[in-house]
Design goal:
The chain has 445 residues and is an all-alpha fold. The chain is built from 18 helices and 2 strands. Strands 1-2 form a two-stranded antiparallel sheet. The chain is globular.
């Protein structure tokens, strides 16, 4: 097989951006480390351009262990865009920090690990990608060196290490029984499947590996919370989809996990008065919806489009909600009272993104949920589509608990400034409208 390193150009650009940023930061004074943010941002933009350039190429394998196909390409573009938005959110918080360079570098390395998880077609590559996506995130969670951040980082690390060991045990069992680690033709025993699920469910924030999500989202800095609830989830869910299509044969197990994840996330979010914890449980419920097309992998051709479209729409919408939280700088639900009067554009962005997370038209998540319904129905699991619909209706309650005070006449909270949140909100609507037009023009099957 003739190997072409340029097949991995987007990944190489992200890696080179991290290395160049770190080396540049070594020679910059503290007040000029913002230059590293530009280097990392340009690397991510280059990765998106490189991905767009290769999307029309035929599917291939890089070094017989890494798939370059639509699953990988969409993940590349989505992760690069989401990480670029996070870097923009991070600049204000990290500006002047003695380790500002390391913040941007760690973000790029964790993003690279997420991309590699999605493209991995060998269990050993998957494990290496899991570690690359995890270890920088542990450091980012405790970067503020305050008590909440330290506690969040410790919980994040301990759960990640424990479930990572279980994942390694699963790889060992699969290799011991199958004699290979490459996905094609791999026959994994049930116990190996369950152990492999442990690590990927941890990164996706799915039940029963979800316990870290609310504590890390609340304890870490707001930009880091936006990152860990968005970017690693993308790579983990695409990796799960690839495994479900090539290795696993347990759609019922993944369907049960999807139901448990979306239901628990919604129930736990009902009485949250801390907006970061509310978004944390929201992201758990979203992981449940995203596990539905994973369960349908191999059963219907709609599963892959449903997952890829939904994960891209979710990433943009979730980051838009976090952008408002970052700009306002407050986590108490009461501080958002009267936001529409004080900061109308921020209020507009928040309402659009929260309605988008529900799945209200014309947001991108609405189109993603339509595809999820269609995938479950076409895959012979109509009951799963009903469960998704019921959970979607239930989620309206706690999102409206946040939206209602925004339009109150009085409020003593601060003002939110910044252009990023309204731009992301508009992008979510544009994505939804474009997706709706495509659904009207093209047949679902």
């Amino acid at each position: 097989m003739t190997e072409n390193p340029l097949d991995l150009l987007p990944e190489l650009l992200i890696l080179l951006g991290a290395v160049a940023g770190l080396l540049t930061g070594l020679f910059l004074p503290r007040h000029r480390q913002w230059i590293v943010a530009w280097i990392c941002g340009l690397a991510l933009a280059g990765a998106m351009v490189a991905t767009a350039a290769v999307m029309k190429n035929p599917d291939t394998m890089a070094f017989a262990a890494y798939a370059v196909d639509p699953l990988t390409n969409v993940t590349r573009a989505t992760v690069a865009l989401a990480t670029l938005l996070v870097i923009i959110l991070t600049t204000r918080w990290a500006r002047g920090h003695p380790r500002e360079t390391e913040v941007y570098t760690l973000l790029l390395l964790a993003a690279l690990g997420s991309v590699l998880m999605a493209g991995a077609d060998d269990l050993l590559v998957l494990v290496a990608a899991y570690l690359l996506a995890s270890i920088p995130a542990y450091a980012l969670a405790g970067f503020g060196k305050d008590a909440p951040g330290t506690e969040a980082a410790l919980k994040y690390y301990l759960m990640g290490a424990f479930l990572g060991v279980l994942m390694l045990a699963g790889v060992t069992i699969v290799y011991g029984t199958a004699g290979a680690t490459a996905y094609p033709g791999l026959d994994a025993p049930v116990v190996g499947v369950i152990l492999l699920l442990a690590g990927l469910l941890f990164k996706a924030g799915g039940v029963p590996a979800h316990f870290w999500v609310p504590d890390v989202t609340e304890g870490a800095s707001r930009p880091v919370a936006a990152f860990v609830t968005t970017v690693p989830k993308i790579g983990a869910l695409v990796a799960l989809f690839r495994l479900a299509g090539e290795v696993f044969d347990e759609p019922a197990l993944i369907a049960v996990l999807a139901v448990a994840t979306m239901t628990l996330g919604n129930l736990a979010a009902f009485h949250q008065d801390n907006v970061r914890r509310l978004l944390a449980y929201s992201t758990i419920s979203q992981a449940g919806y995203l596990l539905v097309p994973v369960a349908m992998a191999g059963l219907t051709g709609l599963a892959a489009p449903a997952l890829l479209y939904y994960v891209a729409a979710y990433a943009i919408t979730n980051l838009g909600a976090f952008a408002v939280v970052v700009s306002l700088g407050s986590d108490r639900l009461g501080d958002y009272a009267g936001l529409a009067r004080r900061s109308p554009w921020a209020a507009f962005a928040l309402v659009v993104c929260l309605l988008g997370l529900i799945g209200t038209p014309p947001s991108g998540v609405f189109v993603g949920k339509l595809l999820v319904f269609a995938a479950a129905w076409d895959g012979g699991h109509a009951w799963l589509a009903v469960v998704v619909a019921v959970n979607t209706v239930a989620s309206v309650f706690y999102y409206l608990r946040w939206i209602r005070p925004v339009f109150a006449r009085e409020g003593d909270g601060g003002s939110a400034r910044g252009w990023l949140a309204p731009v992301i909100a508009v992008a979510s609507v544009v994505l939804g409208v474009a997706g709706g037009i495509v659904l009207l023009v093209l047949p679902l099957r």
